[in-house]
């Protein structure tokens, strides 16, 4: 492998630290044999773009407006008042007063987040796209308090994680309580921000927020089961997502215990009926599961025993279906409303 001297110097002379990855963190530069920081005076998104380009980390997602977001550094403060046009190939092509000339302290150290790094994660869910929100700050993973937390905030997080649209922004006990530091509170996103750091928020150790109040969310790409062709999301043919493709479930041994797991996973209440023989019409694609054996207490259908993925002797005429109480209650209230209207019309 041949690496040019220029490329080696560029990648070795600046770095981002304090985020757990190479593409986000406090900016440090190497000069006169030691690493030092950069002051945030006059620092803007154009300067950050140059850093991300030099590190081959994509583009800058934002200019960190919170001073020392990734923690204060140590050693010399090498640069201040950096002014880049944004199209430079390295930070050294940008203007500044000179090495070591500044009027700053380490509480003003610059931080950068590039597009190739996401210092967020969702914990306690079935996959990476649902769970309790955690953020990485000051070299520690911590939680987010749910004060003022809503679907607009969740939309930004789901987009930043590449998890599709936000489905829910409320709590779910199965995600569990967090522990340790609560880094963020009072997050107020409009919903169209590129990532969470663009939203107004309060950053500190929030000791007034309990671990039962942590922000939780569910994104679209976390959904592994759905009901289709039933004129409601709470009734229809059962489909599961596996290996990037939606497929059906054979009705062999399909019963109310299995249906209960589907209804719970979809937040659709209690099972009303477990149906077979393609009650809602035959599906398409692979038949992923057969001889499903749930106890009824599992959190997801994928946690239930079965004959094995794609192993079956069924066809789509035996696709399993479910009706959950969410569907029934909806019809019940519509029925009562219609009777009410009819009664008053007759009167």
From TrEMBL:
Source domain of life: Eukaryota
A GO CC term assigned to this protein in UniProt: membrane
Protein name listed in UniProt: SRCR domain-containing protein
PANTHER family: SCAVENGER RECEPTOR CYSTEINE-RICH TYPE 1 PROTEIN M160, SCAVENGER RECEPTOR DOMAIN-CONTAINING
Disulfide linkage: 84-94, 145-209, 158-219, 189-199, 250-314, 263-324, 294-304
Pfam families associated with the record: SRCR
This protein's UniProt keywords: Disulfide bond, Glycoprotein, Repeat, Signal
Database matches in SUPFAM superfamilies: SRCR-like (SSF56487)
Keyword Signal: yes
Top-level taxonomy: Eukaryota, Metazoa, Chordata, Craniata, Vertebrata
Record-annotated SRCR domain positions: 14-115, 120-220, 225-325
Keyword Ribosomal protein in record: no
């Amino acid at each position: 492998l041949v690496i040019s001297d220029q490329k080696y110097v560029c990648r070795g002379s600046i770095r981002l630290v304090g985020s757990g990855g190479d593409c986000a963190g406090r900016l440090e530069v190497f000069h006169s044999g030691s690493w030092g920081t950069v002051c945030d005076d006059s620092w803007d998104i154009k300067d950050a773009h140059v850093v991300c380009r030099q590190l081959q980390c994509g583009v800058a997602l934002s200019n960190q407006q919170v001073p020392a977001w990734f923690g204060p550094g140590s050693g010399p403060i090498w640069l201040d008042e950096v002014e880049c046009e944004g199209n430079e190939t390295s930070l050294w092509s940008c203007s500044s007063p000179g090495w070591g000339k500044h009027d700053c302290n380490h509480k003003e150290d610059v931080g950068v987040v590039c597009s190739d790094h996401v210092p967020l994660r969702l914990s306690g869910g079935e996959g990476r796209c649902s769970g309790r929100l955690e953020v990485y700050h000051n070299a520690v993973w911590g939680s987010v308090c749910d004060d003022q937390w809503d679907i607009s905030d969740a939309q930004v997080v789901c987009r930043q994680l590449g998890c599709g649209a936000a489905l829910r922004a409320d709590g779910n006990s199965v995600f569990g309580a967090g522990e340790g530091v609560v880094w963020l509170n009072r997050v107020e996103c409009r919903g169209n921000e590129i990532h969470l750091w663009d939203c107004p928020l309060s950053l500190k150790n929030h000791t007034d927020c309990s671990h039962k109040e942590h922000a939780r969310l569910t994104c679209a790409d976390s959904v592994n089961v759905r009901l289709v062709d039933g004129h409601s999301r709470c009734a229809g043919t059962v489909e599961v997502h596996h290996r990037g493709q939606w497929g059906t479930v054979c009705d062999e041994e399909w019963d109310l215990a299995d249906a209960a797991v589907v209804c719970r996973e979809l937040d659709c209440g209690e099972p009303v009926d477990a149906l077979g023989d393609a009650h809602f019409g035959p599906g398409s694609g692979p038949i992923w599961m057969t001889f499903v054996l749930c106890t009824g207490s599992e959190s997801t259908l994928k946690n239930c025993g079965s004959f094995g993925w794609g192993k079956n002797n069924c066809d789509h005429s035996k696709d399993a279906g479910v009706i959950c109480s969410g569907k029934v209650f909806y019809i019940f209230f519509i029925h009562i409303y219609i009777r009410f209207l009819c009664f008053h019309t007759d009167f």
